[in-house]
């Protein structure tokens, strides 16, 4: 009698690629079906698994995608039990069941020693340097029927595998068969029609939903986006009697309405309302009475008193507002602007004649 | 007493000279010359003794300047303190890089291994990098807290859409852009050139596939690449920030560092247009009616600049480079280079001739 680590429970997680390796290693426990791999019902019992510890371990290790997991415990087993091929157990310290990751990697040599007859063909194919996953594939293929060749996706040139039943095929060819079947299924005209119809139904559904939502909530949402109080000052500003501006000297600038965005200027034959916004990038210039110019503090554009740009980077003159007289009172309409470079400064309403 | 007076008046003379030298054209010329000398003599200049002396002299000049109230006012303005620090940092980092390049270049000439050779500078993200980052984070936070307490940000009056502060300055890192806006039309200086700066920087690895200088400091192996980059960075970015921060005063006029920021100082800068210079000055004729004919000379000049220069350079200075780079990469590089040089050219034209636009199609908002 000796204390050994034995497998009590074994299961397969998601991700099986149906490669047959596990069934080859341990047909008592694993059964590979058409599209996945299952644990045979008998292997649900711990007592059934214990004697198979060695081959379950092998199967787990050979699974190229490592989806076979198992649980072990320390147990006393008789030396005659068919667990002789067990890899050396981890130091047997505690007698408690321990869940260990199913990836113990004993030396490749130990593995080979364990099933000399079945693996003779595989041994020839497998060389120690190969990727373990590929080695497993090779071994599995060699085991099934002893001489099944490996068909890799790259060199499937004969049609053999299409005619052979899946169960008789080596793993790569089975994979190819599966892929082909899957492709065919998606090209199936019926399936296509089904998809189109389903898509159409889905689209109609979403459009209906969207429309319903839009109709019901849309207006409310739109209203929500609008401010409750709209402070939009009247663009028409009354700036006092015309007399006041007639009294200005030619070349004078009246800054009384600068807070409203207007400079009133007096030319020899007219009065006009200048927009105070710099035509360069929208700063507010200052009127410098000594230099007789508007000078912008942002990039240094300068304008003469009537709004013509003469220094700095600005490309064009200041704009003028629409100006009218209503019963002796001057009204400036800021909603209409006149630009010099478009020749609009002589248009009616861009000035008040003196 | 007499001595004192003589000393102050001597100091005033010096201040005056410096004020004049800080006029933009002199300042730009001096910076370019200084950069050129630095690049040509980098092995001497970066010797610790020489570099230390230069640094000490600059510090001394700065301290003496602080006797001047106008200078102090500009330098200690809460907004401007970081830019003073930035100037120190730019100088220090330039020295650091070029010192190592100088040492490496000397080693290369003697056939010795580079300083970086064999250095195993691999570090682990955890813990090395994360620790450093943590420490840096704590230090930065502490520094910012202290800074915010010692130099509080000014709280100004509520914004008024009808009043602009005089001068109105962008955040310091945009002052280079603001300075560009003085010389170019908004769409060029505000959209095209900044866009090209970013695109151009992104394009560098595709234009410059020369592997030399990867992973080690050198100047001798990459003189053109490094000089071009430094011209763009130091002259066309840092110097412009210095202009915007320290030298631009009320009404966006230039003021010397010791000058009082007088908003009423007269400055007459009557713009001239290239079409006026050409048609009236050169040909002594009236301006043509149609604006396309009017602007034709300017358009020819600009297009010619971008077409002729690459060809000329290809045949002369850049012959080897053209062979190495091939047609497409060479032309992309030349275009970006010419775009960059547009900036100093236009600045010089503005300062010398008050030139407003070379091409001025105001009718289409198309001005260059
Ligand atoms: S070895 Fe792994 S992948 Fe292959 S059939 Fe068994 S469980 Fe699936
Ligand atoms: S915004 Fe006025 S000069 Fe730029």
Describe this structure in words.
The complex is a heterodimer of chains A (354) and B (368). The relative contact order of chain A is 0.07. In chain A, the strands form 4 sheets. In chain A, strands 5, 6, 7, 8, 13, 14 and 15 form a 7-stranded antiparallel beta sheet that branches. Chain A has a 4-stranded antiparallel beta sheet with strand order 9-10-11-12, with no helix packed on it. Chain A has a two-stranded antiparallel sheet with strand order 1-4. Chain A is α+β, with helices and mostly antiparallel strands and 354 residues long. Chain A has 2 domains: 2-186, no CATH class; 236-353, 3-layer Sandwich (Rieske Iron-sulfur Protein), CATH 2.102.10. Chain A has 10 helices and 15 strands. In chain A, strand 6 and strand 7 form a beta hairpin. In chain A, helix 5 packs across helix 6 (132-143). Chain A starts with a strand and ends with a strand. With 368 residues, chain B is mainly alpha-helical. Among the domains of chain B are: 1-117 and 228-268, no CATH class; 124-154. In chain B, 67% of the residues lie in helices and 1% in strands. Chain B has helices at residues 2-21, 24-40, 42-45, 48-65, 69-75, 81-110, 125-150, 175-183, 186-207, 223-247, 274-282, 291-294, 296-315, 319-325, 327-353; strands spanning 360-361, 366-367. Chain B has a two-stranded antiparallel ribbon. In chain B, helix 2 packs antiparallel against helix 10 (223-247), helix 9 (186-207) packs antiparallel against helix 15 and helix 14 (319-325) packs across helix 15. Chain B is globular, with a radius of gyration of 24 Å. Chains A and B meet through strand 12 of A and helix 8 and helix 9 of B. The complex binds iron/sulfur cluster and FE2/S2 (inorganic) cluster. Iron/sulfur cluster (SF4) binds at residues 12, 16-22, 30, 32, 37, 63, 65, 67-68 of chain A.
